[in-house]
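## retry 2 of 3
previous attempt timed out at serialization; input unchanged, resubmitting
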Amino acid sequence: MKYNPSMKKLIVILFITNLISISYANYFDDWSNDNLCGWMDSTSIPEYILEEVDKREIICFGGVEVSALPSSDSDDGKNGTVFPSPDPSLIPETKPDTNSDYSY
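## retry succeeded, writing output
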């Protein structure tokens, strides 16, 4: 059998290509769904993370996997953001100052 340098190069290229494709396919196999969801709260999410989350059909909220998104009450009113009222039991009762010559 004759030694063919181009055939050897072809075999080496095929071998390396095969290793690269195997390592890429298994890259996220060790990642849990919560590991991927941790990235979803980031300001800059890598495209490959988004693709893996879509592929696994994961629902993420607060950096962890959830079965459904919680319902959210809107805090927007017709005049802007609405803030909840404080608990009335936490507001101290005001009493008149009887030791003063003036009153508010």
